[in-house]
Amino acid sequence: MRMYDIIEKKRDGFELSQEEINFFISEYCNNKIPDYQAAAFLMAIFLKGMNERETAQLTDAMAHSGDMIDLSEIPGIKVDKHSTGGVGDKTTLILGPIVAACGIPVAKMSGRGLGHTGGTIDKLEAIPGFNTSISRETFIQNVKDIGIAIAGQTGNLAPADKKIYALRDVTATVNNISLIASSIMSKKLASGADRIVLDVKTGSGAFMKTLEDSVKLAQAMVKIGENTGRHTVAVVTEMDIPLGKAVGNSLEIIEAVETLKNRGPQDLAEVSFELAARMLELSGKGSFEHCRELVREAVESGKAINKFEELIARQGGRKEVIDDYSLFPQVKHVFEYKADTAGYISTMKTDTVGVASLELGAGRETKESTIDYAAGIYFNKKTGDRVEKGEVIATLYTNREEKIPQACSLLKQAIGLSDAQPEKKPLILAYIDSTGVEYNTF
Questions:
Q1: Nearest-angstrom CA–CA distance, 242 and 393
Q2: CATH number of domain containing 342
Q3: What are the helix (H) ranges across 158-248?
Q4: Chain mean position to CA 14
Q5: SS3 call for 346
Q6: Which of 239, 312, 315, 336 could share a disulfide with 205, CB 3.0–4.6 Å?
Q7: To 10 degrees, what angle do helices 159-169 and 35-48 make?
């Protein structure tokens, strides 16, 4: 079998066999296929596409290119959740304890942030002492004992995806549904869950900017899950504005805690509780309406916040942060960004907001960058809110005083004001499962 022939076949629009797909993944990971041939192959896929079977088999081959995590020691159905990334997206920190408090094991492998999107692992490490680098044995035992563990991804999880993505990033072959879907789902399959809930973001702060493209991506990933034996559903959620009011690691942990105490921002609670209920429904806890009631009861009874406290203590963190936010890292500089005119906030370019937070120290530009866990932005006002001239729109937290002017300049670019109040858009835009798409018409 020659890579030249496989490239030619896909270039001419023909369907690849499983053997050809496996050959590419295996030989490329073993450095037997040069980057120039791999790049040509990826461009052929980008231009000609892959069908449902090819995409599923590419995903499966990528998943099996490294470690496959075995969660069979943990009793019960293991349901994983994945977000395609956004600004202020701390839903894992909320739904994990809720789902675990409802009796469903949560064995979560999460990633770090890069660029304007934050990572769950970075946020958890803002908790003093919290250890995300636990052994596989400890990870499994913690889920057995307390029902939940959240740890960083292993270094050898779907290595084919890491290598292929690096090449896609420099060859203009990123924005292809089959390649995006296989990249995301290969890591999910390798993580060992029985069932998967996907949170596909759409809007200015998301990878997919339109609802149409987000639904297409969600459908592709659901099909991959179903074709590889993992029952999968997806929810498309709004990311035209940051989720919640906090952007930044310790700020987002505090907001997650407030939400688990049933006093967090309405938008964050709505999305988190929706995803938690979908996870419970997928695990066999009953109808979606019943699962929403289980979520509500877990939060209102205090079981969910108690489970988060248990998670923190079990992984070496100071559980006292639940009630004493002063234990989080603190900043030297706090700056109020104020409106220079009156009006309604009509737009928030969420990706630009993420870059502003990164400038303040809350994110990393490269994998080697150091994060300031205390840095970030808290939005006193968001899209749809009325502001008067001189009123505080956002509060900036940083140890980099020299970066405040640049962050303010970015916020000025990101936040638009208008005379008329904008129409409120729903947060939950669509639900996708193996039977089709259900749009939210409210």
A1: 14
A2: 3.90.1170.30
A3: 159-169, 177-190, 211-227
A4: 34
A5: strand
A6: 239
A7: 80
Looking at the structure of the chain, the number of domains it has is 3
Q: Which one, of 80, 143, 136, 122, lies nearest residue 314 by Cα?
A: 143
* Same-domain pairing of 308 and 349: no
- Whether the Cβ atoms of residue 397 and residue 356 lie closer than 8 Å to each other: no
Domain assignment of residue 70, yes or no: no
Instruction: Give yes or no for a contact between 378 and 432, defined as CB atoms under 8 angstroms apart.
Output: no
**How far is it, in rounded angstroms, from Cα 214 to Cα 84?**
10
Instruction: Classify residue 150: in a domain, yes or no.
Output: yes
User: Is the same domain home to 177 and 35?
Assistant: no
Do 249 and 365 reside in the same domain of the chain? no
- Contacts of 175-178 with C-beta under 8 Å, sequence gap 24+, read 176/45, 176/46, 176/49, 177/213, 177/216, 177/217, 177/220, 178/45, 178/49, 178/50, 178/54, 178/55, 178/58, 178/220
Task: Note whether 191 and 237 are same-domain residues.
Answer: yes
Name the residues annotated as catalytic.
82, 161, 168, 183, 187
Report the DSSP beta bridge partners of residue 232.
Answer: 196
Per-residue pLDDT of the chain (442 residues; tens, 9 = 90+): 999 999 999 999 999 999 999 999 999 999 999 999 999 999 999 999 999 999 999 999 999 999 898 899 999 999 999 888 778 789 999 999 999 999 999 998 887 765 555 688 889 999 999 999 998 899 999 999 999 999 987 668 889 998 998 899 889 998 899 999 999 899 889 988 899 999 999 987 777 889 999 999 999 999 999 988 899 999 999 888 889 999 999 999 999 999 999 999 999 999 999 999 999 999 999 999 999 999 999 999 999 999 999 999 999 999 999 999 999 999 999 999 999 999 999 999 888 998 999 999 988 766 667 889 999 999 999 999 999 999 999 999 999 999 999 999 999 999 999 999 998 889 999 999 999 999 987 5
347 shares its domain with 211: no
**pTM as predicted:** 0.90
Separation of alpha carbons 14 and 363, rounded Å:
43
Are residues 433 and 384 located together in one domain of the fold?
Answer: no
How many degrees, rounded to 5, is the angle at CA 436 between CA 435 and CA 442? 125
Identify whether residues 297 and 241 lie together within a single domain. yes
**Residue 350 belongs to domain spanning:** 331-418
